[in-house]
Amino acid sequence: MNAFLETFFKPNLIAQYLPSILKGVFVTIEIALAVVISGLLLGLVLAVIRSFHIKLINVFIIVIVDMLRALPPLVIVLIVYFGLPNVGVNIPSFAVLWLVLTLVLAAFAEEIFWAGILSVPKGQWEAARSTGFGFVGTLGYIVLPQAVRLTVPPITNRTVAITKNTALGMVIGVPEILNQATSAQSFSGNATPLMMGAIAYVLLFIPVVALGRFLETRFAWRRS
Amino acid sequence: MDALIQQFFNFDIMSRALPLVLQGLAQTLLLCLIVIPLGLIGGLLFALASLARSRTLRYGMIVAIDFFRAVPPLVLLIFIYSGLPFAGLRLSPLTAVAVAFFLNTSSYYGEIYRAGIESVGHGQWDAARSTGLNAFHTLASVILPQAVRNVLPDLVSNTVEVVKLTSIASVVALPELLYSADMARSLTFNASPIVLAAAIYLVMLWPVVRLISRLERRMAS
């Protein structure tokens, strides 16, 4: 028991590395929030653009969205991080992580919002149009409010899954939690910082995972 | 434009990297053959435990599932691979990946199975039991086939996520597709090998992603 505490919960190491882990927590929260906001917004915008049914644009959106859903985020991160500097574009590693995760979240969000828009019965469109709403008004006041409500549970779960990918920042040197924890581990030669990092992630994400579960059950209850 | 092509679509470098990248692909496929069945079976066990009659088991399992869904898989993997050796448990990269994936993907598959099982009406249980089937047979031949059909798009979609997730094994130096491509990148100072790996992932997963969209739309209508 004592050896276990010495390995994973060594008090003086906890005190020593708490500041850097907290710094990592701050960076993780920053990037996660930025990704959630920009990713969901971009996804919604793409879904709205898609509902205008302009063939050429839709094919373009579908191809890009499919690619972003089929590629592992780490692959995209490495391509952007190592490729762009060689063609003269220098962006800092946290911006690379933000950009890639935003695009990935936008792709998944677009699919979910689009499915939501499709699930609103045609009669709603027709009724709104016949009362004098234009296309944009129908979309904004009638269809989207219903569509977005339907998509809350899947969007929440997907958003959590993608924001957890902020941990990939470790690979390209973004000073987020995992990065702080692994470098503290190699300095101290002890697993305590890694345990602290893992606990930090659990504390950050358990509430949103639980929220997702709650939304799912509420959603199921309403449907039946 | 030329620099862009040189850096990302350099076919000369791609063809030189191809043998290495294909070796990586073989490892990735092998990894999938290990972690997908492991997750599908583990997920079923997790789901059954989270629906168990015993309240302790049920709540314990739900907490465990939420815990493993809250920890980023890369954190779990690094903890198992480089944290556990401090406690005297040193695992090979493959074993560490298998354990981390088992815990992570079983939790996700478990939630999907659970939703599927819950979507089958209770009358099905009662009817099957009253025809003389025992609990095991009821589950295996009456409940599960319907449950799986109801959540098929989610099962397929999660499997795509698992295949994509195998790329994080590169971080613990398991020589899979991304690891091999990244090695070629560091030798050639050129991103084309990773673009090649990306193309391989696309060839494998794009058809499945299309299929998911179609399945989801069919379920919705």
Brief summary:
The complex is a heterodimer of chains A (224) and B (221). Chain A is built from 9 helices and no strands.
Topology readout:
The complex is a heterodimer of chains A (224) and B (221).
Chain A: H1 2-8, H2 11-50, H3 55-70, H4 73-83, H5 93-119, H6 122-130, H7 135-163, H8 177-188, H9 192-223
Chain B: H1 2-8, H2 11-50, H3 55-70, H4 73-83, H5 93-119, H6 122-130, H7 135-150, H8 152-165, H9 177-188, H10 192-220
Helix pairs in contact in B: 2-3, 2-5, 2-9, 2-10, 3-5, 4-5, 5-7, 5-8, 6-7, 8-10, 9-10
Structural class of chain B: mainly alpha
| Major beta-sheet overview of chain B | none
* Average residue pLDDT of chain A: 91
Query: Quaternary arrangement of the chains shown?
Result: heterodimer
Cα Rg of chain B: 21 Å
What is the CATH architecture term of chain B?
Orthogonal Bundle
Based on Cα principal axes, name the global outline of chain B.
globular
Q: If helices are DSSP runs of H or I spanning 4 or more residues, what is the number of helices of chain A? A: 9
What is the CATH topology descriptor of chain A?
A: MetI-like fold
Helicity range of the residues of chain A?
A: over 70%
Tell me the name of the CATH class of chain B.
Mainly Alpha
Mean pLDDT of chain B: 93
CATH fold-type name of chain B: MetI-like fold
Number of strands of chain A: 0
